[in-house]
Design brief:
Radius of gyration: 20 Å
Largest sheet: 2 strands, antiparallel
Number of strands: 4
Strand content: under 5%
CATH superfamily: NCX, central ion-binding region
Structural class: mainly alpha
CATH topology: A middle domain of Talin 1
């Protein structure tokens, strides 16, 4: 069920994006706008479908854990793997604008959930901010040069004349099929996640933070790894940062709206640990990005190592394993301080990089 649900989510997202982008282009909407909205949000459609579906099914822990876990997975695992393939170029706009916005969204989520709940109004606030952010990106990009606009919209192509998907009726059909696949895929994935939790003797939250989060992030994995292999290394980084922002504002925003008057209850363990890890991971992007305007292979290896350590901690904590205390002591007393010192030294030794535009 998990694999079948995952396949439906990936296929549904691709079909939905194809149909919606073709339909938008046939109505005269620019490739730039389509690229910044429909295509950009398409890779996060699985997270959105699963989180909303889990909330509607009463599995709030899976819905919230999926978003928090996906953001941790995006930065540590996807950027880690991509940087190991090839050092990743970091665009200056990401440092000045996109990463601070991702950080701001993470901080806002923390502030809104400190009372143990994400209310209907707070979900509406997050979703309204997503709409405002999208409009801002479109307006900003219209002021860019023609070359920059072509780069933004490079992934969007109109249907060829006479092609099977050139008619508006077919495009609407693709949208309907894509939405149906997302709905059924999310239902299968949530049911499979509940089964995993029961079989492994762990909570829905742990499954949401790990298996479900990794599964719904597969489109981002495919996009970023493919971009790194093709040499489009700035796209690999931008895809991760943009997806993380959408997960918080879009997935949790819409999940909060569909939760009704009850709102989304946030598990104490999520507030005590995982949301802080998500915030720390977002904060870690700034010194790594600024240190040389690229993510080196060794930094990618550090990111990947931290993701393995995070999952190991979740498993040990879920099982109340005897090794948990020793593992935590080593990470907090040695590994984390050593990483911080290393990043500071790297930033000091490359001061000139921060002045390059």
């Amino acid at each position: 069920m998990f694999l079948g649900g995952l396949m439906l989510l990936v296929i549904g997202a691709n079909v939905l994006v194809r149909g919606a982008s073709r339909l938008a282009l046939s109505f005269g909407i620019s490739r730039l706008v389509v690229g910044l909205t429909i295509v950009a949000f398409g890779t996060s459609a699985p997270e959105l479908a699963v989180s909303v579906g889990a909330v509607l099914d009463g599995r709030t822990d899976i819905g919230i854990g999926n978003v928090v876990g996906s953001n941790i997975f995006n930065v540590l695992f996807i950027l880690g793997i991509s940087a190991l393939i090839a050092p990743l170029v970091v665009n200056s706009q990401l440092i000045r604008q996109e990463v601070p916005i991702m950080l701001g969204a993470s901080l806002l989520l923390l502030a809104l959930t400190l009372d143990g709940k994400l209310s209907f109004l707070e979900g509406g606030l997050l979703f309204a901010l997503l709409l405002a952010y999208t409009v801002f990106l479109v307006v900003q990009s219209r002021r860019e040069t023609r070359a920059a606009q072509d780069e933004f919209a490079g992934s969007v192509a109109p249907a060829a004349v006479g092609a099977w998907d050139s008619h508006w009726a077919v495009q609407i059909g693709l949208i309907a099929v894509g939405l149906a696949a997302l709905v059924f895929g999310s239902d299968y994935l949530v049911q499979a996640a509940v089964g995993f939790a029961r079989a492994l003797g762990v909570s829905d939250l742990v499954i949401g933070l790990t298996i479900v989060a990794a599964g719904t992030s597969m489109p981002e994995v495919a996009t970023s790894v493919a971009a790194a292999l093709k040499g489009e290394r700035d796209i690999a980084v931008g895809n991760v940062v943009g997806s993380s922002t959408f997960n918080i504002l879009g997935c949790l925003g819409l999940s909060g709206l569909v939760s009704g008057d009850m709102g989304l209850l946030v598990a104490p363990s999520l507030l005590a640990f995982d949301i802080w890890v998500m915030l720390a991971v977002a904060l870690a992007c700034l010194p790594v990005f600024i240190s040389g305007r690229e993510i080196a292979r060794w930094e990618g290896g550090v990111f990947l190592g931290y993701y393995v350590a995070y999952v190991a901690y979740l498993i040990l904590a879920a099982q109340q394993h005897d090794a948990l205390q020793a593992f935590s002591g080593v990470m907090l007393g040695f590994v984390v301080p050593l990483t911080v010192v290393t990043l500071v030294v790297v930033m000091i030794r490359r001061p000139a990089a921060t002045t390059v535009s």
